[in-house]
Structure formats: C-alpha cells, structure tokens
Design brief:
The complex is a heterodimer of chains A (about 325) and B (about 290).
Chain A: E1 3-12, E2 15-25, E3 30-34, H1 41-49, E4 57-66, E5 69-70, H2 76-79, E6 87-90, H3 104-116, H4 120-133, H5 139-142, H6 152-164, E7 170-174, H7 182-199, E8 202-207, H8 210-216, E9 219-224, E10 227-233, H9 234-239, H10 244-251, H11 291-295, E11 301-303, E12 306-308, H12 313-318
Parallel strand pairs in A: 3-8, 3-9, 6-7, 7-8
Antiparallel strand pairs in A: 1-2, 1-4, 4-5, 9-10, 10-12, 11-12
Chain B: H1 10-20, H2 22-39, H3 41-44, H4 76-112, H5 114-128, H6 132-143, H7 147-173, H8 177-184, H9 189-225, H10 237-244, H11 253-280, H12 282-286
Helix pairs in contact in B: 1-11, 2-4, 2-11, 4-5, 4-7, 4-9, 5-7, 6-7, 7-9, 8-9, 9-10, 9-11, 10-11
The chains are: A alpha/beta (about 325), B mainly alpha (about 290).
C-alpha cells in the first residue's frame, strides 16, 4: 500500500473532530472518501497533506504511512518538499484556486521548477505537454491567459495540471467537480480515472456523489461525524452495504425513470463536533437503531471486502 | 473562451486605459506637463530662481514676467517651476518611502498575525488617531525644519494609512483558495507573500498612494507656509504663498499663482487616481473574478 492511514485522530483545540479513521490506497487505485458535509472528509485530506496546522489542528494519535514514512511524525520542514512533489492536491473550488493576477503558464510552471529543478523553458514545455494531455486546446496560447478568461472546466484542468506538474505518486482531490456543470463533471472524472490508470497514481477522491464513486472508485471509505462507518471495496459495498448510513447514501442517488417524489433523503443533519451523540454517532438518524447503539461505540469489524463499524452490520447486509 | 490579452504588464495597460477617459487625459496631461516643467526649468526660463532685482519688485504679470515678480523682484514663473521640483519630489519621495515601509509592515503583520500584528497595529493606530498635520508638525519640531524633516514627517504621517490598507488586503487574500492551493503544492511562506499576496494587494495600495500624493503636496505646502519646509532661497509653493500673505492686496499674484498650482495639481492627482481606480476595476478584482 502506498498510503496506509491507521486509527487517525485529529484534535483542534479541545475538540476531536476526527477519530479512529483507517483506510488505505495503492498505486493505480482510486479511493472514494464519502460522507455528507461536515463528516470530516476535507479534514482527512488536510491531515494526509500535513496542512492541519493551518486551521489550528494536529494529529493526536494514529499514523499516516506514506511509502514507508509516517507523515504524522514528520516536521513541517520535511513535509513541504513532499507536497507537490510526491503528494498533489486538487482544491475544492477551481473558480478561486488560481491566482487572478498571474498568467496560467507561470502558475503551473513554478511547481515543476520548484520540485524538479527544471529550467524555465523545460518547465513551460512540460506545462504545455500536461495541458495537452488534459485535452486543453491550444495549450501554448492558454499559458498566456489569465484565469478569468477561462471557463470553470478549463480552470479545473489547470488545477489538475498543477497537481500533476511535480510528478506525484498520490493525488488528493477535494470535491474536484462540485462547482462544475454536470457535463463537465463527467469529463473531469473521466480525465482523473484515465490519469490513475496511465500513470499508476494513487488517488483519494473526496466527494459526496455516490454516483461518481460507483463509476470510478476501487475502494470506498464512508465517514460519518468524524468516524469511519465503512471502508470496503466498491463492488461488495454497493451490492450489500453493511452500514445503514452507506445504505441511506446509496438510496440518495438519483436515477433516470425514478418516480417523482420517490428519491429518498436522510432525515436530520450531521451533528456539529460539539454535539456528537454518545454511542454510535449515527443512531439519532438510523432506522435500525436499538438500545445498544445509544451507549456503546461500535467496534470496527471485518465484513466481505473490508470493515464496518455498526452493531447491526449483519442484519443490514442481509437486507 | 474570450480573446486573450496581449503580452503587456497589468499596470501599464491600466495607466493607458486611465488616460483614455476624458478627465484622465486632462489630469494626466497637467501632471506630465508639470513634471516636465520641473525637470527642464533651467532650459525653459532665462531667469535664475534666486536672482534678485529690487527695483523690479512687485511687478504685475507682463510680457517680461508672465506671472509677475515677488518682493525681491524675482521672476514668479521661474520660482514656481523650481518650486514644483521641491513640492513634487518631496511629496513623491515621502509617499514612496511611506508606501514601501507600510507595505512591508502591513504584509508581515497581516500574514504572521499574533503578537507581532498586535504590536504593529497598536503603534500604527496611535499615529492614525491624530490628524496627519499634527503628526507632521510634531515630527518637524523634533527633526528640525528643512527638506529631510518634511519628507520624514510626511512619510510617517501617511504610514498608518498604507500599513492598515495592506494588512487588511493581505488578511483577506491569505484565506483565498489559491493561497491554500499554492501551499498544498509546497510553496514557502516567502513565495506566497511575494508571488501571491503582495501582487494581489498591490492595485488598491498603489491607487491609495497616488491619492495620498495629492494630500502630501498640500501637507508639504502647509509646512512650507509655516516656514518649516524647504528653507530659503530654495523655492517651494508653500514658502512662496507664505511670503505673499504680507502683500495680499498690493501684489495678490504672489500668493495667487502658487496657490492655484497647489490646487490644480491636487485636483489633477485626484481625478487621475479616480480614472485609475476605474481602469484597474479594483472592486471587480477584489471579488476574485
């Protein structure tokens, strides 16, 4: 495994917004990190890239093994050369992810110049090459454009190019398609999937779109309120979700030909970090909750193709 | 895909665009003419700024002396051209120092925050709470009258404005996604400050510096009027007005023309600054579009 996160716990001040998260991803694989807003997906991404101090957070326990080194124990001076070089990061909103007063070319060039020590000309050649691979027409001309002259889909490809420019082994993409049109979303997802297969990258795809997960991911980690609900291979997960939350998320996927009004939601909202319920954090919204869910934290147990944390996992799987 | 901008620096095109508006071109032409007059004063006039001619004192504007002569018979137009040197260079250099220092202070305070930020903000707010003229008068009283004293006084008087503006800009920009993106790809603190934060904060600070130069000319003239600016025989607009007050009714041109020069120049700088704001489209940019 290229990246192996074990029992990751994150603290911000006195609260613990993330606890006991474990997942792994290898080269050539896509891991989907799913959950509603506020379930801790982006925080997990920050923990993996070592950017937690930016928001005043820290890894309090657990390990983030990346290619044999534990990123959780690495000081900032050792982490910075890894960022962009070995771990690429694609931010949430492509509309604001590019510096408005710099041309596109230099913004992408600088990553290769900084991490690979390329000359200005070599870096530009690499940039044009990358942009062409990402199917941007007239890449050399686009290099001279300012971000406001490009469409959202274009900007997202530029952001992907920046993440790829240092030839990384792992890419973390934080909801790369949320801000885009549906048609463009499909293109970007396709581009990411192709890159993973062609370059043997490992990709952590953070999303709340179970449809996207079903299409391209190899593994899935479902987060709920800062805890891992279920982490499994994609096929068994969709065939027989072991956690009621996963089942509910799958029930939220809109399908063509669905009866009007038949699309299910999940009643209630994700609790804030100060209001985490006792026992299983999903119990207030769970259709299967019983006495034990109110008091006991469910242990992570093996299930076909991965692990699950639910007192009633077997029953769900059977249904 | 819209058409791509030609390869030209942002600031260059903005200044050209500012000159294309009607008020911008009028103001711009006045300012350029003034600077050229100040630079080429020795070529443009046959008189020396300090050549006294007592029999010809208090002469009204005529073909020989276009703007008349002062109490020592010195040519007023000549003295105004040389006075423009003092007024413009003192104001521009003082604001230049002030902007540079203000940006460094404001950017580091805004970026690093914490105790350093609180210390800088407190000191700067202390000078901010007095009118500029009071701060300037106090500093001139300490340093002593003259060009150096005036420059220092003006630079310190406007420091608070630029520090506060830069700090606010930096604090807003450092939360932008592209800063986070740059950091997540391995950029260092200094790269982020010099390549992302300062270039993005620059436009409003430069326009504010432009407008402050107008105020600085008034401040320089005021200090000169009180006899605290450039010392005689070096001409300055404020000093000329000061010597003209005694002959307000006998020879009103002595105070009138330098006064007009100050007024028109300040108006021109303000109009050009407004045109520059429109050309830079600062409000649209601060939305991050």
């Amino acid at each position: 495994m290229l990246l192996d996160v074990k029992d990751l716990t994150v603290g911000i001040g006195i609260v613990e917004p993330l606890s006991g998260i474990s997942f792994a991803v290898d080269r050539g694989e896509i891991l989907g990190l799913v959950g509603e807003s506020g379930s801790g997906k982006s925080l997990t991404a920050l923990a993996v890239t070592g950017l937690l101090p930016l928001i005043g957070g820290r890894i309090t326990s657990g390990s983030v093994m990346f290619d044999g080194t534990d990123l959780a124990r690495l000081p900032e001076t050792k982490l910075r050369p890894l960022r962009g070089r070995r771990i690429g990061f694609i931010t949430q909103n492509p509309m604001t992810a590019l510096d408005p007063v710099q041309r596109i070319g230099p913004q992408v060039d600088v990553v290769a110049r900084m991490h690979l020590g390329l000359s200005a000309a070599a870096a530009r050649a690499k940039t044009v090459d990358l942009l062409t691979q990402l199917r941007i027409p007239e890449a050399a001309v686009i290099c001279d454009a300012y971000p406001h002259q490009l469409s959202g889909g274009m900007k997202q490809r530029i952001v992907i190019a920046m993440a790829l420019a240092g030839d990384p082994d792992l890419i973390v993409a934080d909801e790369p398609t949320t801000a885009l049109d549906v048609t463009v979303q499909a293109q970007i997802i396709h581009i990411l999937a192709t890159l993973v297969k062609e370059r043997g990258l490992a990709l952590i795809l953070i999303t709340h779109d179970m449809g996207v997960v079903a299409q391209i991911c190899d593994r899935v980690a479902v987060l709920y309120a800062g805890r891992l609900a279920e982490a499994r291979e994609v096929r068994p997960l969709f065939a027989a979700p072991a956690h009621p939350y996963t089942a509910a998320l799958i029930g939220c996927i809109p399908r063509a030909g669905i009866e009007p009004g038949a699309l299910k939601g999940i009643p209630g909202t994700v609790p804030g970090v100060a209001q985490y319920p006792t026992g299983c954090r999903f119990h207030p919204r769970c259709p299967k909750a019983t006495e034990i869910c109110l008091t006991a934290i469910p242990q992570i147990t093996p299930t076909p193709g991965g692990t699950v944390a639910c007192h009633h996992a077997l029953e769900v799987a059977i249904v | 895909m819209t058409t791509l901008a030609p390869r030209r620096a942002l600031k260059e095109t903005a200044i050209l665009r500012a000159l294309r508006s009607p008020t911008g071109i009028i103001a711009g032409v006045w300012l350029i003419a003034l600077v050229l007059m100040a630079i080429f004063a020795p070529i443009l006039t046959s008189y020396a700024f300090d050549a006294q001619n007592l029999p010809g004192a208090y002469a009204a504007p005529s073909a020989d002396h276009w703007l008349g002569t002062d109490e020592f018979g010195r040519d007023l137009l000549t003295r105004m051209m040389y006075g423009a040197r003092t007024s413009l260079s003192v104001s521009a250099i003082a604001i230049g120092i002030s902007v540079t220092a203000g940006m460094i202070l404001g950017a580091s305070a805004g970026y690093f925050g914490g105790r350093f930020d609180r210390a800088v903000t407190m000191v700067v707010d202390l000078t901010w709470s007095f009118p500029e003229i009071l701060v300037a008068l106090m500093l001139v009283a300490i340093i002593g009258p003259g060009v150096t004293g005036t420059m220092t006084a003006i630079a310190v008087a406007y420091l608070a404005q630029f520090t506060r503006l830069t700090r606010a800009q930096i604090m807003a920009i450092k939360g932008e996604t592209y800063v986070e993106a740059s950091r997540s790809l391995g950029a260092s603190d200094s790269y982020i400050v010099f390549h992302h934060l300062i270039p993005n904060a620059l436009a409003p600070v430069l326009v504010s510096a432009m407008l402050a130069t107008g105020d600085a000319i008034i401040l320089e003239a005021t200090l000169g009027f009180f006899g605290l600016g450039a010392q005689p025989p070096t001409p300055s607009w404020g000093g000329m007005m000061s010597s003209g007050t005694a002959q307000l009714f006998k020879a009103p041109w002595i105070i009138l023309f330098p006064g007009l020069a100050v007024a028109i120049t300040v108006i021109a700088i303000n109009l050009f600054g407004d045109a520059l704001i429109r050309a830079l489209d600062i409000r649209a940019k601060s939305r991050g579009t």
